[in-house]
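Dissemination and training. As part of the outreach component of the grant, students in the summer workshop were shown how a complex can be specified as a set of sequence lines and then modelled as a single object. The example used during the hands-on session is reproduced here so that future cohorts can follow it. Participants entered these lines:
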Amino acid sequence: MDDRLRKPFMESTKDMIMQMASVEINEQGEFLDQTEDISSYGVATLVTFVGKVKGRLLLDMEPEVASEIVKQVLGEELNDSKDATFMGMIAELNNIVGGDAITRLNNDMSFGLRLASPAVFTGKNVIISIPKIQSSTMECQTKFGKMRINIAFERGGEN
Amino acid sequence: MKRVLIVDDSPIIHNLLRKVLERNGYEVCGDAKNGKEGVDMYKDLNPDIVFMDITMPVMEGLDAVKLIKEFDPEAKIIMLSAMGDEELKEEAKGLGVDVFLKKPFDDYKIVSAISKVV
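and obtained this result:
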C-alpha cells in the first residue's frame, strides 16, 4: 500500500488521541501487510470512508487503553466496555481520528472522501475477518496497553 | 443569555458540548439527533446559535443548513465536524455557514467561534 495513504491515519491517530486524552502512542516497527484475520485486543472500532477510493480504518485496543481515553475525555471512570457511553466515546474517537485523516488525504490528494458512522465491537479475541481488500497494520504501545491501527483501501487506493 | 441548538448524532458530543456551553454562560435550548430534527427544532425554538455536525443519519448537516437558511437567512450557524477539508469548508461557506470548526474542541475554540457570530 502506498505510504501516502496510510501515513495520515497514523499521524491522525497519534495527534488526535494526544489532543483529546493526552495518551502517547508509540509505533512498534513498521506497517505490515495484514494477511490473516485479526484477533481483537478487546475494544475495536471501525469506520468506513468513500469517495474516489473506498476504505476503512480499524482501531483496536486493550480495554485499559480504551478506559483511559474515555476517562480523560469524559472526566469519569467507566470500566465496562459494553456501557453505551463507553462505546459511544470510542466510536466518536474513531470518527474524529478518521475525519482528521481523510481531511489530510482530501487536501493533499483530492480524494473527496466522506466518512460513514463508526461501529464499535467489544470482547477479547473477537475475530475481525479481513475480506479481499488490501490492508496494513501498525502495532502500537501506550502506557496503558497495546493498540493497533489497521487501514484498508480497495484496490490499494487506486482510482 | 444566548440560546444554542446542538445538532449532532453523537450523544457524547451533545454531553461534552453542553458542558462547555453551560460553563461559559450559554443555554442549550435543544438537542437534535439529525439534520431533519435540527431544522424542525430551529423553526420551533428560534435559537441564537446552531452547532451543526455534517455526517448524520436521516438528513446530513449541509442539507439542514440549506433549509435553515431558506427559513431564516439571518440564522447563525457554526459547523462542528470531524472533517474539515478545503472543499467542504468552501461548500459550507457557500451555504452561509458562519464558522467552520473541526473536532475535537475545547472551551476556547467554542467560545471564540461564538464570539465571531454574535
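The helical segments of chain B are 11-23, 35-45, 61-71, 86-95, 107-117. Students were then asked to discuss how this feature might be tested experimentally.
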